[in-house]
Design brief:
With 202 residues, this protein is α/β, with parallel strands linked by helices. Helix content is 49%, strand content 15%. Helix 3 (66-74) links the parallel strand 1 and strand 2 (85-89).
Amino acid sequence: APDADFDAWFQKHIYHAPFGGMTWRAHRTLLRQWRSLSKDEAWQHFQRHDYDLVLTDIVLDGTMSGLALVNGIRRQTSTKGDVPTIAMTAFDDKTRRIELFNLGVTDYILKPLAEEELFVRIGSLLEMRRLTAKIDFERQQRHTEELNRSDSRFQTLFANMTEGVALHELVYANGQPVDYRIISVNPAYAASRLAADRVAAD
């Protein structure tokens, strides 16, 4: 698909985090206020809206931790489960890092936060997500185009066959085939049926 088509689609779905500065831009229909959320509030927001990145502290107010939040995200069966996540933690040891990555955290950053590092990490993940989305978008476009070409070739072949051909579809009842119905015929089949009907009428 042309880049312009993808960019138009991307503008409606993805937040932008420019690498060259600290100013965040977002499409006006997707603009969200930044605020401190407990795990319970964050989970409710996540389920109601589509986000492109989750930034969470390991320790959250509420009934569950930030790790539980990430675990809940990764258990989603929809595309929501693939949202990149950054965990903020004050502990940097091997056991904690392994725990974070095993739970599905995409990246982590140490506290106290260095603003520049935070923005670079966020920007990198969003850029990776943008590129992944573009690849998926283009793959789907190619798949759709190939299906359309295949259907066009089939329809041309079907219409120009000299033999009469009828496409049938089975009719099921209680899981068992009980009948069939004709769903399409080519011109040769229609002509042969018309000739047969004329002979029968005579």
